[in-house]
Amino acid sequence: MTSFQRSIASYEAQFGSKPKWVAHAPGRVNLIGEHIDYNDGFVLPAAIDRRLSIAASPVNHPEILIYSEQEKQQVHFSLDAPLLPSGKWTDYVIGVVEYWRRLETRPVGLKLAIASDVPYGSGLSSSAALEMAFATLIGEVWGLELDPVAKALKCQQVESDFVGMPCGIMDQFVVGLARKDYFLKIDCQSNTHEFIKAGEQFPALLIINSNVKHALTDGGYASRRAQCESALFKLGSASWRSVSMEQLSGSAGKLDEVELRRGRHVISEMHRTLEACERIQASDYQSLGELLYQSHFSLRDDFEVSCPELDWIVNRMQSLGGREGVYGCRITGGGFGGCAVSLVDPEAVKRVIQIIAHDYLEAFGVSAGFFLTQPSAGCALSKL
Ligand code: GLA
């Protein structure tokens, strides 16, 4: 059963009636452009075909009741009381409630049942899926449907200011705006976007989950962001967009060694992302794959957000190489664990999975997870 069907089944089992709506939102995979959304860069994610779904109906008292299939418990909170973060997963929902009720809305109570096919804590944006699905639901029920960009920016604010993870705009943006068969090139300086079609011959998008759980709220992400900001300040520039590699190396004396490396990643990743868009449009998957490896090595060495397991996966994929149908592979998402994204010849997928599954288990004593995905549609609401 899909998360859509399971959310309905859970709702019926918990509340003994049928839901009125199902709001659903995808996870995302970032093909390239990592850790540069908060640096005025370009990013190139797509929504994946795994979704989180929320089955819901209104209740006639000012309360939100939430059942989560994963947590196997019901929690509820009052719409009349102040809503504060608790450090739990429910913050993604409560934060949206809090920020939406500050707008011109008519809050009404709701019963919800949540089911998800987006792996949690794996760098595939299960949190943005939850925020955006819920924001889509209350947009309808509370009478304020924001346009997708405004909705994404508001959810980013929830995650950053309420949940406490100072993220950029990439995840909420792609979860809200994605289209089937397209990557979304986002210009994170102007918050504008362009759709880049994954052509007929586009390789299989194989996601490899290292099963190392990542926690972006524990400081590694925030410290990278702070280092980029302090480097930019020392460079005397308003935006990373206007800093060239020459300028960065010319200013080496002003920056400490770590800031220099962070800056090198930011500037080089911007170039790689623009180049990747051109390579997709030219159906040049060999060069596209090469850019994925370069991105990984830059994230590993200059930005230091990888981990031994993901480095191992990328190296092993690279050693299989074109001969075995592997074009490229890199860590995806915030890092410190989670998944790798790879481009593989569809004919070679089965064999590549067998090899990596076997060797990874042997190397780390842990099983890797694998799934194929396709660029998919963004969040939506179904009225039942
Ligand atoms: C997380 C954040 C995004 C982005 C990525 C890294 O997913 O939510 O805004 O910064 O990490 O590219």
Architecture overview:
With 384 residues, the protein is α+β, with helices and mostly antiparallel strands. It folds into 2 domains: 3-195 and 379-383, Ribosomal Protein S5, domain 2, CATH 3.30.230; 199-373, Alpha-Beta Plaits, CATH 3.30.70. Helices cover 41% and strands 22% of the residues. It has 11 helices and 13 strands. The longest helix has 25 residues, at 257-281. The protein is globular, with a radius of gyration of 21 Å. The two termini are 17 Å apart. The model has no long low-confidence stretch (mean pLDDT 96). The chain binds alpha-D-galactopyranose.
List the helices and strands and how they pair.
Layout: H1 3-15, E1 21-30, E2 42-43, E3 45-59, E4 63-68, E5 73-78, H2 91-101, E6 109-116, H3 126-141, H4 148-163, H5 170-177, E7 182-187, E8 192-197, E9 204-209, H6 220-235, H7 245-250, H8 257-281, H9 285-301, H10 308-320, E10 326-331, E11 339-344, H11 349-364, E12 369-373, E13 380-383
Parallel strand pairs: 4-6
Antiparallel strand pairs: 1-3, 1-13, 2-7, 3-6, 4-5, 7-8, 9-11, 9-12, 10-11
Helix pairs in contact: 2-3, 2-4, 3-4, 3-5, 4-5, 6-8, 8-9, 10-11
Q: Which terms summarize this structure?
A:
384 residues; alpha+beta; Ribosomal Protein S5, domain 2; Alpha-Beta Plaits; 2 domains; 6-stranded mixed β-sheet; 4-stranded antiparallel β-sheet; 11 helices; binds alpha-D-galactopyranose
- SSE topology string: HEEEEEHEHHHEEEHHHHHEEHEE
* Poorly predicted residue ranges: none
The Cα radius of gyration reads 21 Å
CATH topology of the largest domain: Ribosomal Protein S5, domain 2
State which percent range the strand residues make up.
15-25%
Shape: globular
| Total helical elements | 11
- Gap between N and C termini, in Å? 17 Å
Q: Describe the biggest sheet?
A: 6 strands, mixed
What would you call the structural class?
alpha+beta
